[in-house]
Design goal:
Shape of chain A: elongated
Shape of chain B: flat
Strand order of the largest sheet of chain A: 1-17-16-15
Oligomer: heterodimer
Radius of gyration of chain B: 19 Å
Number of strands of chain A: 17
Radius of gyration of chain A: 32 Å
Mean pLDDT of chain A: 89
Low-confidence stretches of chain B: none
Strand content of chain A: 35-45%
Largest sheet of chain B: none
Largest interface: A-B, 49 and 46 residues
Mean pLDDT of chain B: 92
Strand content of chain B: under 5%
Order of helices and strands of chain B: HHHHHHHH
Largest sheet of chain A: 4 strands, antiparallel
Low-confidence stretches of chain A: 1-9
Number of helices of chain B: 8
Structural class of chain B: mainly alpha
């Protein structure tokens, strides 16, 4: 058992005695576990209507106890503060032992660094979003606290890269002969049904079909309203057809010899990418790309690809963050892992008792 | 080829378990060596499966629950061999074979289709973060196995040599698991900061990882400062592993999480 030197603290007051007690540590850890778990069981940061619908008469109590925003509540912050204080006092109080176990000292200091970094993040960190439409620039970040950036960001273009363009499945039923067959087709391709008796050509593909003044058009490259223009050729001649994935019966020709069902399986998204210009003093300083997992760092701020609007291909939501706590937290993580590795390797060299 | 490797691995785990059972039932220690050989063959087959899958998918086989579970089972058996000399008793081989077999059985219920990576997973941090977490879970699973054997066979006999040996193994495995869990959570936080703009979002997966870390922190602290040993530590290890299971499986199925693509 590790010797516990009660005298080394010397001038600790009675209150500090309690705060420096290892027993308190377990109570604090238990309370932290309970609060953390509560925060995952009760939805956090939702609207009043969500809580009323889910918890009914208990909603008032949840709000009073701040259980709808546990991790930013006073009791949770106080708990983390007490934990840090307890750890600091325990470490200081056992300084003789710590001199003999620098690995344990390093571990304790690392946890304090992570807590301190978290505090810096909470107090000095700024997070917001830049809802951007193509061609428009802004230097204001929206969020719980609106703030201004030292540069403006203009969205030049937004792309959704796909692994594949999607699959188009056609099911053709012959009204006269009664046969029914399904096959996949690519836009521009002609495929044969019923042993070549019918040839179906996929003439044009409209991912987001709309009817403009100049005829059929597509509003975006997103498959919001997929439509295929088809030509069906058999021994009797050629018929033109429209097939809509979302509206199977729409624009169907009741006199046609065939009925067609069209199913569109969208392609898998490979990457979301925003091309942006960074503007300083009215001039474009840089033109850069932001993608998921590839943030852009500029003048102490980091810009992340955060969202898009399937209905609007010219919109991209960019998250912006400035967090001076990050280096402190990272240093804490590094020291913590090093301290624990040191302890583990040290223990391997000694027989366990 | 992939399916053959994983099926052979399953068969070898089953053969290992049967060989261990036969060695115990018929008091034929020679059969135990056969069990060890089958266990090694199972691990090699699993290694081949993971290598082939990595090659054919183009990314580390850690992108969904099927792949991570196979990797965890691979880690359990691999770490079992690394810690072999710490377990002089005959329990480690059979317990590892049984657990890895059970995990591969669960894998059979999961979707094993190879799919392209979603944008959020296209990062080198996938390999670093998930592999370290899976190794942590593997080490904590071995700590759980030692504790389960301890509680099942030596409860109330703290001075028995085998009980003390199990306690030593539990301490080493838990220490290794705790170190890897800490590193894995830290790596995940760095990745989260790269992908989501915040190193900690109080996402359910993150939060339950922290809860698991706090539980093991308490266990290790109690052992070092309050001399908790034997049965009490064994119970702590069993409870800690229940938190690991909830973090790994429970959160995916019961809670909405930023980690939902891992489900």
């Amino acid at each position: 058992m590790i010797p516990y030197n009660k005298d080394s603290g010397g001038a600790l007051t009675a209150g500090a005695e309690l705060l420096a007690s290892p027993r308190l540590l377990y109570w604090l850890l238990g309370a932290l576990v309970a609060l953390c778990a509560t925060g995952t069981l009760i939805p956090q940061g939702e609207s009043l209507a969500v809580y009323t619908g889910r918890f009914g008469a208990w909603t008032g109590l949840l709000l009073r106890l701040r259980l709808t925003d546990v991790y930013h509540s006073g009791p949770f912050t106080a708990l983390l503060g007490a934990l840090g204080l307890n750890l600091a006092l325990c470490t200081w109080r056992r300084q003789i032992h710590m001199r003999l176990r620098p690995d344990v000292l390093l571990t304790h200091l690392a946890i304090l660094a992570v807590l301190a970094g978290g505090m810096v993040s909470a107090l000095r960190g700024r997070h917001g979003s830049l809802p951007l439409n193509a061609g428009r620039a802004t230097d204001w970040a929206e969020g719980t606290r609106r703030f201004r950036l030292p540069f403006a960001v203009r969205l030049e273009d937004f792309h959704i890269d796909l692994y594949d363009s999607g699959r188009h499945r056609l099911t053709v039923t012959s009204r006269q002969e009664g046969w029914n067959e399904t096959a996949e087709v690519r836009p521009g391709q002609t495929i044969a049904f019923h042993a070549g008796a019918l040839k179906v050509a996929a003439l044009d593909y409209y991912p987001d079909f709309s009817l403009g003044q100049s005829g059929p058009a597509t509003r975006s490259s997103e498959p919001n309203n997929p439509a295929l223009r088809l030509a069906l050729t058999d021994a009797r001649g050629t018929e033109k057809h429209w097939a809509f994935a979302r509206f199977p019966g729409f624009h169907a020709n009741p006199k046609s010899r065939y009925t067609i069902t069209y199913e569109m399986v969208p392609g898998r998204v490979k990457q979301f990418r925003s091309e942006v210009s960074l503007i300083e003093g009215g001039w474009v300083s840089e033109r850069r790309s932001i993608a998921v997992n590839k943030p852009l760092r500029w003048k102490g701020f980091t810009l992340y690809q955060a969202g898009y609007d399937p209905e609007n291909p010219n919109y991209s939501n960019i998250l912006v963050s400035h967090d001076p706590g990050v280096p402190v937290v990272y240093a804490g993580f590094l020291l913590l892992t090093a301290g624990l590795a040191w302890t583990f390797l040290r223990a391997l060299r000694r027989p366990l008792i | 080829m992939n399916a053959t490797a994983i099926n052979l691995s399953f068969a070898c785990y089953l053969a290992a378990l049967l060989a261990y059972a036969a060695a115990f039932l018929f008091a034929r220690p020679a059969l135990r060596k056969g069990g060890h050989a089958a266990l090694a063959a199972a691990w090699l087959m699993q290694t081949a499966f993971l290598a082939l899958r990595w090659h054919s998918s183009g990314h580390a086989p850690l992108a969904n629950q099927f792949e991570s579970l196979v990797s965890m089972s691979w880690g359990i058996t691999g770490l079992c061999f690394c810690l072999w000399r710490l377990a002089p008793g005959a329990w480690l081989g059979p317990a590892t074979a049984a657990l890895s077999l059970a995990l591969l059985g669960v894998c059979a219920l999961l979707d094993s289709t190879i799919t392209p990576l979603v944008p959020a997973l296209q990062s080198n941090w996938l390999l670093l973060h998930v592999s370290v977490i899976m190794l942590a879970y593997a080490a904590l699973a071995l700590s759980f196995l030692a504790s389960a054997v301890h509680l099942a066979a030596y409860r109330g006999r703290p001075d028995h040599e085998a009980a003390m040996s199990l306690d030593r193994f539990n301490t080493r495995a838990m220490g290794l698991g705790y170190l890897l869990l800490t590193a894995g959570i830290a790596l995940g936080a760095v990745w989260a900061n790269e992908a989501w703009g915040s190193y900690w979002s109080w996402d359910p997966k993150e939060t339950w990882s922290l809860i698991t870390w706090l539980v093991y922190t308490s266990a290790i602290h109690l052992r070092r400062t309050h001399h908790w040993r034997g049965q009490r530590m064994a119970w702590f290890s069993v409870i800690g592993f229940a938190f690991v299971l909830f973090t790994y499986f429970g959160v995916n199925y019961l809670m909405s999480s930023l980690h939902s693509y891992a489900g």
